[in-house]
């Protein structure tokens, strides 16, 4: 029986001995997991600190929102390009280049005192998003097949760990209104460490050669920026505004043009047949839904636990520090051993079964958060289970893609999957913020009137996350051929 990891989508069979070196560095896996941890941390680090950044730079909420949006827009433009560059020129060169650009952006963000330069630094930090597909490509090329599922799960689970760590670190570093630049100095230190580890661990191997479709990358990046920009700014601009509607229409036209262009390019950036392949399509859609659920958990929980119970009758009135340590830290700590555990489960039962189980757990966790939040203990349990669901779901996805795509398509396939996760997270963030800012009640407090989200607004946000997990579970159940796990 042919190992699915050795089977290409066109039916040809890889020869493991030809595709992989006889020996490999044991630092490759920790280096690639560290890269993924770093990009996830950079993505999430600013989210809890946006109000503080606005206060310290005397900037409006609309302007400071670009600190979060900037990296997402860069990611949409560079992620598929980096995946292809790694295949053509060699992963080591592109990984180190992406880390160097990330480091420059981190230094700018840590030293500037103007919002414009801060946003510019965040634009450069967005290069880190290209590290995920590059990491998956490195693992596929460098590790023996017997260790691959385990390694992919550990690396992918670092996505959830990095996000959880970022929420905790931001809370600790910015408590009592401390200088927000501390969080960017943290990213500087970690980027230097990851850069040194990657330089030592990654072997100097030539790429497979070929052509890079720069025009296709430009068109795809433009279409994705036009899609993500109104998603990220829609709650500020107005969902029915001319800018939002115009950008959505432009994205549809540009992305359709991208498909037309790729169908007529000899060496396209993305083979359309790859995107249409049922298991790849199902994995990408599941990634978007889990990304949506992840941010409905993180944002909804962060705001909910800080809601003053004495005023509203719900919430826990937690400080930023208590939010980070008491509520967010347990899920982050538990996610650390989940990577190796998920890897063993994926190897034994297959990634489809693991993805399905994680999404079912996510549905139960979000339902518990929506209806069982009367005390801290039960809410923390629900939050921990939601973190577990996210970490395990993402641990299964690279194995699903590697099972169903050819080696030379690994970088691009995981690039698209990474973009889908970004799109899902952006949509989740936009919808949760819209719900929490539109469903409010004006409370009278000693400090004056205070508008806060209703309990039903939080319930809605958590239930929408549960619905996203449900859709991902249906994809895991029915979107793959059973013989391919």
UniProtKB/TrEMBL annotation:
Entry keyword set: Membrane, Transmembrane, Transmembrane helix, Transport
Main location, first listed in the record: membrane
Transmembrane segments: 27-51, 63-82, 94-113, 119-139, 151-171, 183-202, 214-232, 244-261, 281-305, 325-346, 353-373, 379-406, 418-436, 456-480
Pfam family, one: MFS_1
SUPFAM superfamilies per record: MFS general substrate transporter
Protein localization: Cell membrane
Membrane topology of this protein: Multi-pass membrane protein
Keyword Transport belongs to the record: yes
Major facilitator superfamily (MFS) profile domain mapped to chain residues: 28-484
Keyword rRNA-binding found: no
Record protein name field: MFS transporter
Biological source species: Actinoallomurus vinaceus
């Amino acid at each position: 029986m042919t190992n699915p990891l050795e089977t290409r989508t066109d039916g040809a069979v890889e020869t493991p001995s030809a595709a992989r070196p006889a020996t490999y560095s044991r630092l490759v896996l920790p280096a690639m997991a560290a890269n993924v941890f770093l990009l996830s941390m950079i993505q999430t680090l600013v989210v809890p600190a946006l109000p503080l950044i606005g206060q310290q730079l005397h900037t409006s909420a609309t302007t400071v929102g670009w600190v979060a949006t900037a990296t997402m827009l860069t990611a949409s433009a560079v992620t598929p390009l980096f995946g292809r560059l790694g295949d053509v020129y060699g992963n080591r060169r592109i990984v180190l280049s992406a880390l160097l650009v990330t480091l420059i952006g981190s230094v700018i963000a840590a030293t500037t005192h103007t919002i414009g330069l801060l946003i510019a630094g965040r634009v450069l930090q967005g290069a880190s998003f290209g590290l995920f597909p590059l990491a998956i490509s490195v693992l596929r090329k460098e590790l023996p097949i017997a260790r691959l599922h385990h390694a992919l799960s550990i690396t992918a689970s670092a996505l959830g760990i990095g996000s959880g760590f970022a929420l905790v670190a931001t809370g600790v570093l910015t408590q009592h209104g401390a200088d927000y630049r501390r969080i960017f100095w943290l990213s500087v230190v970690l980027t230097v460490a990851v850069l040194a580890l990657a330089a030592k661990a990654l072997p100097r191997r030539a790429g497979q050669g070929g052509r890079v479709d720069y025009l296709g990358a430009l068109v795809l990046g433009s279409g994705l920026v036009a899609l993500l920009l109104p998603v990220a700014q829609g709650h500020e601009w107005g969902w029915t505004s001319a800018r939002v509607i115009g950008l959505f229409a432009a994205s549809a036209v540009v992305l359709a043009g991208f498909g037309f262009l790729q169908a007529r390019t000899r060496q396209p950036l993305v083979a359309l047949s790859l995107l249409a392949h049922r298991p790849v399509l199902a994995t990408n859609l599941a990634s978007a839904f889990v990304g949506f659920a992840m941010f409905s958990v993180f944002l909804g929980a962060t705001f909910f636990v800080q809601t003053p119970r004495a005023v509203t009758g719900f919430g826990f009135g937690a400080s930023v520090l208590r939010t980070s340590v008491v509520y967010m830290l347990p899920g982050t700590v538990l996610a650390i051993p989940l990577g190796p555990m998920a890897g063993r489960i994926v190897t034994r039962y297959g990634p489809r079964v693991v993805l399905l189980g994680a999404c079912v757990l996510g549905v139960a966790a979000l339902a518990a958060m929506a209806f069982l939040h009367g005390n801290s203990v039960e809410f923390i349990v629900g939050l921990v289970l939601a973190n577990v669901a996210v970490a395990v779901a993402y641990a299964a996805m690279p194995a699903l893609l590697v099972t169903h795509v050819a080696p030379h398509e690994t970088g691009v396939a995981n690039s698209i999957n990474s973009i889908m996760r970004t799109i899902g997270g952006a949509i989740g963030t936009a919808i949760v913020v819209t719900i929490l800012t539109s469903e409010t009640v004006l409370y009278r407090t000693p400090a004056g009137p205070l508008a806060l989200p209703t309990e039903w607004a939080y319930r809605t946000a958590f239930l929408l996350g549960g619905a996203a997990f449900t859709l991902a579970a249906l994809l895991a159940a029915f979107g793959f051929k059973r013989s391919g796990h």
